[in-house]
């Protein structure tokens, strides 16, 4: 069936040229993309062009946003959906970039109907049906391959919210086993909470023990940035994320191409 959205996307791809040097620089600055082969990078580039066309990346508090910054944000935002598609980010429009950490003020009511005020400093935030907000300082300081990636973290929350408020489980693909996901994630989460309570130093960010939804977002950061650590610590979580993201960063394309079977 003819689709306006698809027609528009094909037209955008035909009309938009990304500067080759700028693209190379941005990819080099994205360690989480290093597992991708040439064919993957070509598809990522198309996805980034469409992301930049369909989403607004907006500056807040006077941050000086240039094209290099927009490109770096778009690449990291598109990496998790490389094999899922841009429609996984439907229903919202803007990425808002603050120069540094920001302090939104939210009031919320807990189960006992007590009103709380959340005015913590934040490196990022995702709103259900609303924008993704990130601190550029935190994007810059997490540019190593260390398991910290505020953009992947916030966009993982966006995927989690596709079926309502974030709860640590995005809607799964046909063929994936919801009970298996719940079992694997709840055991790993309990283990992470136990280790954090015991004060153990972990390579995986202990912020994962904050809640099941933070666990999913932090494990997603680790999956793309330090997959070998996730494979070692929680191989079953890695396997579920491999099935969900349809990527295998623990086995880079260059290694996979050497496998003949
Ligand atoms: Zn979070």
Please describe what this structure looks like.
This protein has 261 residues and is an alpha/beta fold. It has one domain: Glucose-regulated metallo-peptidase M90, N-terminal domain (Cyclin A, domain 1), CATH 1.10.472. The chain is 47% helix and 9% strand. The chain is built from eleven helices and six strands. The chain has helices spanning 4-15, 20-28, 38-54, 67-78, 136-141, 150-160, 178-197, 212-225, 227-233, 235-245, 253-256; strands at 56-59, 94-98, 106-109, 115-118, 124-126, 132-135. A four-stranded mixed β-sheet has the order 1-2-6-5. Strands 3-4 form a two-stranded antiparallel sheet. α2 (20-28) crosses α4 and α3 crosses α4. The longest helix is centred in the C-terminal third of the chain and has 20 residues, at 178-197. The site of zinc ion (ZN) has 4 residues, from α6 and α8.
Which tags fit this structure?
two-stranded antiparallel ribbon, Cyclin A, domain 1, 11 helices, four-stranded mixed β-sheet, 47% helix, 261 residues, single chain
What's the quick description here?
The protein is 47% helix and 9% strand.
Q: What portion of residues belong to β-strands?
A: 5-15%
Biggest sheet descriptor: 4 strands, mixed
Which CATH class applies here? Mainly Alpha
**How does the overall form come out from the CA principal axes?**
globular
Q: What number of structural domains do the residues give?
A: 1
- Helix/strand-derived category reads alpha/beta
* Sequence stretches where pLDDT stays below 50 over 5 or more residues: none
Rg estimate, integer Å: 19 Å
Molecules bound to protein: zinc ion
What average pLDDT do the residues reach? Answer: 92
Q: Helix amount, in percent? A: 40-55%
**Proper CATH architecture:** Orthogonal Bundle
